[in-house]
Each structure stands twice: as structure tokens, then as C-alpha cells.
Amino acid sequence: MKTKVALLVDSIPEASPYVQYYIDICCSKGVEYDLLIWNRDKNNIIQNDNYVVFNSKVSSRTPDIIKYFKYFKYSHFIKNKLKNKNYSAVIVFSVQLSIFMSDYLQKKFNGNIIVDIRDYSIIMNFFYFRKKLYNLLDYSKLICISSLGFKEWLPEKHKYILSHNISHILLKKKHIEILNTIPEKTSGIIKILTIGMHRDKEVNYKFMRDLGNDNRFFIYYAGIGPATSFLEQKSKKINNVSFIGKYSKEEEFNIVKDCDLINIMLSNNVLSKCLTSNRFYLSLMHKKPMIVNSNCYQAYLVNKYNLGIVINEGDDTANKILNYIENFDIDDYNENVKKIMDIIEKDLFRFEEEVIKAIIN
User: Fold this and answer.
1) What is the pLDDT of residue 61?
2) Fold of the domain spanning 4-163
3) Where in the chain is the domain with CATH 3.40.50.2000?
4) Is the CATH number of domain 172-341 2.60.40.10?
5) Residue 177 clears pLDDT 60, i.e. is over it
6) CA dist 99 to 32, 106, 271, Å?
7) What does the pLDDT look like over 63-105, one tens digit per residue?
8) Cα separation, 79 vs 73, whole angstroms
């Protein structure tokens, strides 16, 4: 029987780019696949021969109880689709969907399950739901995580494979020479970019206040998210903050190219403390030093490889950034970026090998 896998996602592919890593692996090995997705925007029209689409509107303002009910409905939709097909393995993404699908997947795909974890959910605070996830991990052939920081809240007994939020295709571009403008900035305006989904209200508001109306800095935000309108409102009295809004993937390179530093300050919660964000990889790819807050896994990586600035509570943010730039050694920085990128590349090869073994064997 030809190998065929089901990929279970609780969003659309554009919102879950890491799904493409698995699709690329399937295509390279001639493995057939179906991608079961949740289209949460009624204005989206999704048509693809490999997609099985569940249409049900949800937004960031939808109450949690309604979201959980919709997860329940989506899980039933998935079960109905899976029972009519002979899949040799299933790959399930996200903590929430893994919990809702746990019992069914254990019974139907015992030993042929890959779980991919790239987030933390507040429902893990409840023992019942936490136990559901842990039970599924016990029955899984492979568990992939996007950050080693997640091991802080995952069971120690399992083997975890690191699946970075970057593809081999992008990694091949790592040797492209990108102009690093920092050495010129000791007497110029320092441009600091926050790019991607804006979720963290208070920490970004504090960052704007710390550097606000200081003509040595220019802060700009690219993208949108739950915190965007709040930050735009708060920035009205700050003259060195700008918002670009939604952008396409094709525009990303030029947006990042023009900045000097990338802001990756995150909220103080379990997810933020443990994750390795998309912005972290964007910083490495474009050789733009990052700004992170302390007491998180990203701060550990920044300190270990000297990749940017770690802001501690009570720090004078402006002086810390200026001091970093004044002492910036571009050769040392580039060498450190190369060092960690080489490690990431090895991790990616191992991830692909483990996924192939789990799917085919």
C-alpha cells in the first residue's frame, strides 16, 4: 500500500508556514498527503486538491468558550474525514488540536503519530487537558518541538526532535552578504524594527516609552495583530514611532534590510519565556542584532552566542542600546551568527531524517 499521511492543522497554511516543512519532505519521498485545515475567515476561498477544508469563523475577539466549542466541532470534522481514508500516519500540529484529537488518534493511529508543538496553550493549566496531551505523546512515534525551551513544561521521559521555524530553502541563503549598518550608527539615527504578529501590548508600550521622543532612535512596526490598535493609539504622542501595517512575504526582505536592530521583546508568560520566535530567525538570516528581554530562552541564546542586547528589568534601555552599538564588533557578530546557523542546519537535517523514518518505516 502506498504511504499516505494526514496533516492536521488548526489554521490555514499561510498562518502555519511550518507545515510546509513536512509537505516538502513528503514530496521529496513521493509520499501522498492530505492537509486538513481550519479556515477561520469566511472571506477566504480555499481550493487545493490536497486540502480538506473546515470553514468556521473565529477571530482574536472570539470568547475562549466559543473557541473551545469550535475546536470540538473541528475535531469531529477531522474524525469523519479520517475514518474514510487509509492513512498510514498522521501529523498533528498545535497543543490545542492535539488535546482535542488525543483519544481518537491513540485508538486509530497508535504508534503512527507525529506531534508537532510550536506553542503553549492556557488550557494546559488544567490537569485534565494537560493529561490528554501527555497521553498522546506516550502513543506518538515522534515528537517535534520548535524550541528547546518547551522542555521546561513537557514530560522529561520523551525524546524531542528540534524543528526550527526556518526551512532548508531559506537556510541556503544564509551566506548571502547582507549589509550590516550598525558601525555607521554611532552618530546616526538607530532604526529598530518589530516585524510580524503584534501580540505583546504592555512590553512594546514600555519599549516605546523608554525610547519615545528620543531623536537618536526611530521605532517602526511592520505587520498587524491583537496589540496593533492599542500600540497605534498609545503612539500618538510619540514622534519617533511609525506603523507600516500588513505586508507581503515578498516585501519582507526590503523591510528588514532598512533596519539596524530587531525588537523581539515579549510578554512575561509561559509561552514567551520558552519559545524561539520567527523574529529570532529573521534576525539571524538578515544579520540584524536582536533586542530581547531577560529571563527567557531567547535571552539564553542571545547571551550564549552574543547575538544582540538583553534588557533586564530596570535597565536604561536607551543607554544599553547605545553602549552595545558603540562596542559593536561586526566580525565577532558575523562569526557568532555563522556558528549558530551551522548548528541550526545540523538540527534541520536530523529533523528531516527522523520525520522520514517515522512516516515511511
Assistant:
1) 82
2) Rossmann fold (3.40.50)
3) 4-163, 172-341
4) no
5) no
6) 25, 11, 17
7) 989 999 999 999 999 999 998 888 999 999 999 999 999 999 9
8) 10
